[in-house]
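Project outcomes to date are best conveyed with an example. Our students and postdoctoral researchers have been running inverse folding experiments weekly, and each run begins with a structure described purely in tokens. The record below, which covers 133 residues, was selected by the lab manager from last quarter's runs and is presented without edits.
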């Protein structure tokens, strides 16, 4: 049923873009976030990739990885985004999502991360905890 909801949202978003924005995609996080089923991550990714604007797209992978390796200590992705924006030079913001999503899908997985092939395991709180046991 989730896919039906997404399909409905695509139709609704398309109608809203035509009727309220003259067929143009909004260029602010706030306007994009107000669209059906569009959250902050989707909004920042649209602005970053479609409009070449500097944003850090924090999805579940980025949030998990930067917390595991101690770059941030946050509970929510929007807090992670704010802390990363303060910690990382602006010219690198767009690279964060590009570099970490695949790493999070293939190596730093939510369950049973592949520490044996992880190049940054020495910085990983989870890996270090496992070594202590």
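After processing, the design step wrote out the following sequence:
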């Amino acid at each position: 049923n989730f896919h039906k909801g997404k399909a409905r949202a695509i139709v609704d978003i398309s109608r809203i873009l035509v009727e309220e924005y003259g067929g143009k995609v909004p260029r602010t996080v706030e306007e994009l976030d107000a669209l059906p089923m569009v959250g902050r991550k989707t909004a920042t990714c649209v602005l970053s990739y479609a409009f070449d604007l500097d944003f850090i797209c924090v999805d579940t992978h980025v949030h998990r990885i930067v917390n595991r390796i101690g770059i941030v200590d946050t509970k929510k992705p929007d807090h992670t985004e704010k802390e990363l924006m303060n910690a990382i030079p602006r010219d690198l913001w767009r690279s964060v999502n590009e570099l970490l999503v695949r790493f999070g899908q293939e190596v730093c997985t939510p369950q049973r991360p592949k520490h044996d092939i992880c190049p940054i395991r020495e910085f990983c709180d989870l890996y270090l905890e496992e070594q202590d046991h």
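Residues 2-21 form the longest helix (20 residues). The two ends are 42 Å apart (CA to CA). The training component of this project remains on track.
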